[in-house]
Amino acid sequence: MFERDTGMVVGMLVGLLLAATTVVAQPTGEQLTGLAEAGESLFRQKCIACHAIGEGDKPTGPDLAGVTERRDRAWLTAFIADPGKMLEAHDPVATELLTKFKNLRMPAQSLSAAELESLLTYLAHPEEAAHHPPPETTLMAAGDAARGARLYTGEQPFANGGAPCLACHGITGFGLAGGANYGPDLTSLFENFGDEGLTDILKNLPFPSMEPIYTARPLADTEQADLRAFFAKANGTPMANDGLLFGEAVSGVLIFFGVVLLFGRERLRGVRRSLVRRSTEKKEVAA
Amino acid sequence: MNIRAQISSVFHLDKCIGCHTCSIACKNLWTDRQGAEYMWWNNVETKPGTGYPTKWEDQNQYQGGWEKAGDELTLKSGGRGSLLGKLFHNPKLPTMDDYYEPFTFKYGDLTSAPAGNDQPTARPVSMVSGKPMAIEAGPNWDDDLSGSKSYAANDPGVVRLSAGEQAQMFAIEKMVMFHLPRICNHCLNAGCVAGCPSGAIYKRGEDGIVLINQDKCRGWRMCVSACPYKKTYYGWNTGKSEKCLLCYPRQEAGEAPACFHSCVGRIRYLGVLLYDADRIKETALHEDSELAAAQRAIILDPSDPQVQAEARKSGLPEQLLAAAQRSPVYKFVKEWGIALPLHPEFRTLPMLFYVPPLLPVLSQANQGTQKLAEEFFTTLAQARLPLQYLAGLFAGGNLEEVKAVYRRLIAVRLQRRQTSVGDLAEAEVAKARDLAGVSAAQVEAIYRMTALTRIRERIVVPPLLREQAVEAGMDPEEYKRGMGFGARRPPKRRW
Fold first, then answer.
1. How far apart are CA B70 and CA B242, in angstroms?
2. Residue B484 covered by a domain
3. Residue A270 in contact with partner chain B when CB distance is under 8 A
4. CB-CB: which of A267, A270, A280 is closest to B150?
5. Could you tell me the pTM of the whole model?
6. In chain B, which residues touch A (CB < 8 A)?
7. Number of domains in chain B
8. Same domain for A7 and A111?
9. Using one digit for the tens of pLDDT, what is the confidence trace for A86-140?
10. Burial of residue B198 (number of CB atoms within 10 Å: 0-12, 13-18, 19+)
């Protein structure tokens, strides 16, 4: 507890220092444009899946227009570096955001000081990079839920060789013991993030633990559509019961011991004792 | 023909007084060790009784021995596949309680107890756990019919009898019993050898003694369940099974096995038999009632020149052939036909034969005054110990086998009475001999072997010629200097 507090204090101090330096040397002109451009490309890589600027909140994250004015720089720096830590420290804003966005935690982003600088510059002055052409929005074809299910389970491999979702994520109806639990259960994914949010997530898979898997092996457009359809279909089914795994383990153990017991019934138990018991019991009956 | 030699024995049950000296001699020599306390390679049982381990004869429970499956013999405890399946949980083992939990007494307390108002006592303690225990059983718990309501009444041989026969056995003042000393039978078709998954049990080529190689034994205990006589034992300390070795080290030095040597009643006879190893399987495949006769048939006459020639071809040494001709066992089993194998229906072809006890059958059946041959045979039928019981023990249920033996034993009694007391008519004696199918000279020979012989006549240990076996492998001088107490080497372990 104590260590965590000191860590946070140190982080804030570093943030304050950074803020102080920027105040001292406010970039202007071409330097500002350069920073904003770099920031925009970073935004498109890491943030756009969940956040928008000036288009309103997405299901996955708040609109970031004017965020640099709403929050101070130290808070932003600390939050981007590790949102989890902020939540553990019961930061009121972070807690409120978590509730608002259905417990979807923003993954920690490991950005260098220069990257952070450019990103914050872009967020403060998005208009500086406005002349940059916006990314093409590809028209999503309607997906096939059945094929999506096959992709999810790995029955049909992803074209680029990514690991099937079921390897880490459980979903109702698949897997014996409530599925895998390395990642969160995806049953209510569609409900939580909607079609739009889902589209963004599937396109970029912007989670640190997923990046090493899917950056080099992105999901193809049709695959994304299929999965989206599959998630949409899975939506509304009851969540897998967490107690299921326990129940299945217990019944498995019971079955095992039952089989051992069945075989064990055949074994020779004490001959002499039962013989003596039987013959003395008989005597008692006669008497 | 493939002639082999088998050291075998005869126990004359009419002479056994049930003193357990044989058991003690064996215990002191071989099993007085930690982990072997419960083993009695030699034990003496009271019949009727359930024996040691309890009800060992009941193969429905213990699944020992062989059974006939068409033209093949299979172990009752299972074929190879089945044994492999049961490798880690052999289900048909006697529990410690079926043998008995070995115990001793805290004798030290008798002398070290502090002064007090009570006599110091030596409490019984378990030799397994070292804790005080209540003694519930022992290796001869049913000795002399003790606890007969529980034990003798549940003798598998008794249970098979009719209600009338059982009532006859347990009638008050007519209770009857005899002693049955048991060691390993060193069978021709040993179940333990066949059951061993490690190939650790073998039958010595030169003398047929069945041994467990302690280096190869892995302690699976399949021999314990496969042996119908329950004469292999698992050593809890060594983790290996062990059994009666017919005191082969003593025999190699020309001495009688310890239990034979110490026998007070001189009931034990030992000698070598020649048999045809090619006929083992066909012999063991006979019907239950024919097994005793079939087993006699496989034993060959050592005086027959043709047998001798075949034996030489099979590589048997001259000294062994000479010993085979002096074998008292051959006389008991083949010449006189008065010794029968124990439970031949287990089909292991046991090579320990018993002269069934005449006395419990006859004594008091007619107030002990049977005189005439006719009277003998009529009283046999109404004897106290039903002949059917003895037939179940020694002849696979074949009453005729037991009757034939008794006729001969009765003929011996009558002729001896005629000789020593002289109150019988010679015609009666001759009639008894004719009924039994023995000559006067044979009767004299049986009498002599039963009553008068000295140890070298009763126990003919064949020269085992270890020196020849050593010479075949290495220089005897080198062997003598190099071996000392025998080769000491750590056991090979595969794990």
1. 33
2. no
3. yes
4. A280
5. 0.71
6. 50, 53-55, 58, 61-62, 89, 91-95, 97-98, 136-137, 147, 149-151, 153-154
7. 1
8. yes
9. 888 888 888 888 888 777 778 777 788 888 888 888 888 877 776 555 555 444 5
10. middle
